[in-house]
UniProtKB/TrEMBL annotation:
Domain Asparaginase/glutaminase C-terminal: 205-320
GO biological process terms held by the UniProt record: amino acid metabolic process
Record-level Gene Ontology MF annotations: asparaginase activity
PROSITE patterns: ASN_GLN_ASE_1, ASN_GLN_ASE_2, ASN_GLN_ASE_3
Protein name in the entry: Asparaginase
Record Pfam families: Asparaginase, Asparaginase_C
Domain of life: Bacteria
Domain L-asparaginase N-terminal residues, every copy: 7-178
Source species: Pseudomonas laurentiana
Listed SMART domains: Asparaginase (SM00870)
InterPro entries recorded: Asp/glu_Ase-like_sf, Asparaginase/glutaminase-like, Asparaginase/glutaminase_AS1, Asparaginase/glutaminase_AS2, Asparaginase_C, L-asparaginase_C, L-asparaginase_I, L-asparaginase_N
Length: 330
């Protein structure tokens, strides 16, 4: 636990800083002055010395893309390595907040400072908004002491970046950690190719939940679209339509052609245990690698970080199966 003394507040947009426009709420610049005025009016709020950087373009987080994750990663690394900041508070919209927290957890492996993401369900300045509570709470935690790594702070709770999900669309307690089964072998060390210094490139990824009636040709069309990795959300403990020989053949062919196939459970509190049912074993035998109890956000962010680092499919599968930052092991 270490108190942050020199904080970068990285403002990316999101509801927390939105203002009303004729088209509805939209991200607005000028949040530095609003934060400065709030802290002057509330001297009881603990806050490290800080400066604010607006990351252009400001986004409604519904528009978040991999390129924006890479831009956030670059800004954070520069702030720490070149500018001497010992902590980063990232202001972000809630729609994809958990996705960004998970992706940054893997993009910033080895970075020896805390990074906290927060946002709000209502804009700052709106009556009864949660914006200032979330912001002042995050500032207070960083001023009093926090472990390194990527965290998500919301509604008074500090959550691990690779375990959080957005569960509610209207309540202030929108984010939580689902009690998924967690087990796995932790990586003894990280190669330089997965270190925060390693730049990444965009990756063509897809997520597909299994559902009754999924046809082999539908799956083939997705796999033939040029994707490099597929995250398959299986039933329960990792089962699927294992009596559909054509669908299993499509998966096998995709793996042989170099597509990384990973599996998680589509149950909010589920975990992939392929050997529990024969249906799961048959899916595994097509080349799927188990994501254990990882969330969709963590699994997608991890695939992006691994394949984006230029790892081969075999290498990426090996690291996907290991715990890198608490995403699959307790």
């Amino acid at each position: 636990m270490r108190a942050v003394k020199n904080l970068l507040v990285l403002y990316t947009g999101g509801t927390i800083g939105m203002l009303q426009t004729p088209q509805g709420l939209a991200p607005a610049s000028g949040f530095e002055a609003r934060l400065h005025d709030y802290l002057l009016a509330h001297p009881e709020v603990q806050a490290p010395d800080w400066r604010l950087l607006e990351l252009e373009p400001l986004l409604d987080s519904a528009n978040m893309q991999q390129a924006n994750w890479l831009a956030m990663r670059d800004a954070i690394v520069k702030a720490v390595v070149e500018d001497g900041h010992d902590g980063v508070l990232l202001l972000h919209g809630t729609d994809t907040l958990a996705y960004s927290a998970a992706a940054l957890s893997f993009l910033l492996l080895g970075l020896n400072v805390p990074v906290v993401l927060t946002g709000s369900m209502l804009p700052a300045g709106t009556p009864n908004s949660d914006a200032w509570d979330n912001l002042s709470g995050a500032l207070g935690i960083m001023a009093s002491g926090i472990e390194r790594g990527v965290h998500l702070f919301f509604n008074g709770a500090l959550l691990q970046g690779t375990r959080a999900s957005k569960l509610r669309s209207e309540a202030f307690d929108a984010f939580a950690v689902q009690p998924r089964h967690r087990e796995g072998v932790c990586a003894d060390s990280l190669p330089a190719t997965l270190d925060y210094r390693q730049r990444r490139t965009p990756v063509r990824l897809a997520v597909l939940p299994l559902f009754p009636g999924l046809q082999a040709e539908q799956l083939r069309g997705l796999l033939n679209s040029g994707i490099q990795g597929l995250l398959l959300e299986c039933y329960g403990s990792g089962t699927g339509p294992s009596d559909d020989a054509a669908l299993l053949q499509v998966l096998s062919e995709a793996r042989q052609q170099g597509v990384l196939l990973a599996a998680i459970s589509q149950c909010p509190q589920g975990s992939v245990l392929f050997d529990t049912y024969a249906a799961g074993s048959r899916l595994r035998d097509t080349g799927l690698v188990s994501g254990g109890g990882m969330t969709r956000e963590a699994a997608l962010g991890k695939l992006f970080a691994l394949l984006g680092a230029g790892l081969s499919v075999d290498e990426a599968e090996r690291w996907f199966a290991l715990d890198l930052c608490g995403e699959r092991a307790a």
